[in-house]
Amino acid sequence: MLNQKIKDNWKWILIPIIIVSELLIDDFIMPHIYKTIFNLMSFNIVDHFYLYLNIYKIVSILVICLLNYWIINQKIFFKPSETKVGWLVFLVICFTIVMVSITKKNFWIALDVGAIAALPEELMFRGIILAFVLRLMTKKSTSQFRVASGLIIAALIFGAFHYINLTSQSFGFTSLQVINAAALGMLLGAVYIKSGTIIVPMALHFIYDFLVTLVKGMPTTNYTSVQFSQWIGLSVYVIIYSVISLLIINYKPSNNKILPKLKNQ
Question: Fewest CB within a 10 Å sphere: which of 25, 97, 211, 223?
Fold first, then answer.
């Protein structure tokens, strides 16, 4: 495992290594393999796009887990430190939202998009990268400043990762998405820090993408220019997400359940 062979001062380099490795395998190597297999089976990828998308995401989860084992070896925490009524209520609300939406036009697409977006991205960016950043940042001290800095760094990495969408979107629209993703990443990271279980940010990420897709349908390519009003609206969202995130991790910081788990790993 690469993590064990590198000195502490150099361990930050493992983050770009795992991200670049994941991109190379998922976006350059595997598509050629998929294309070959689909051609042998006489399947047209366009006609079987949803099948292709789900296979891509399932393989992506396996790739992320293997790369984590070989490079960072970061434990992903599923089991809650203790049963909290608030988190259970939140999960019940998410389940209820899904059930009452079952008759909606885009329900099945939204269900699929929510799941295939939340699972690999939360494993990668909260379960592995945020946790690893926090391990490095809080090795000497678990001060609120260091925890908040780790949260922001991981959120910015998550946001910047969305620039891979430039292949199907304009730079302006992708930048809008990048900033929104970074702000959302702060919120998702904050609930992981506070809850100590990856299940909560997974549920939040799922319900976010589920509701967006339920209303708007399947995302499409977008090369339209971004309006000034959209930047204003985004600025408001960023402020709201950021304030809520910082309040979550700074309210009773001793209850940030992920920190003792990382320390004992």
Answer: 223
Quick one: tokens of 229? 């009003």
**What is the Cα–Cα distance from 59 to 63, expressed in whole angstroms?**
6
DSSP string, 144-186: HHHHHHHHHHHHHHHHHHGGGGGGTB-HHHHHHHHHHHHHHHH
Q: Taking the CA of residue 164 as centre, how many other CA atoms within 13 Å lie in the half-sphere pointing to its CB?
A: 14
Rg (CA), the chain: 19
Q: Which pTM was predicted?
A: 0.93
Q: Angle, to 10 degrees, between the axis of helix 228-250 and the axis of helix 171-195?
A: 10
Are 112 and 54 in contact, with CB atoms under 8 Å apart?
yes
Whole-number Å distance between alpha carbons of 189 and 131? 9
* Cα separation values, 50 from 77, 121, 141, Å: 30, 18, 46
Query: How many Cβ atoms from other residues are within 10 Å of residue 65's Cβ?
Result: 16
Q: How far apart are the first and last CA of the chain?
A: 15
Condensed to tens digits (0 to 9), the pLDDT of residues 23-56 reads 999 989 998 898 888 888 888 877 778 888 899 9
Do 162 and 216 contact (CB within 8 A), yes or no? Answer: no
Q: C-alpha 123: how far from its chain's center? A: 7
User: Residue 75 CB: number of other CB atoms within 10 A?
Assistant: 15
Residue 223 · residue 170 · CB < 8 Å = yes
CB 118 within 8 A of CB 209: yes
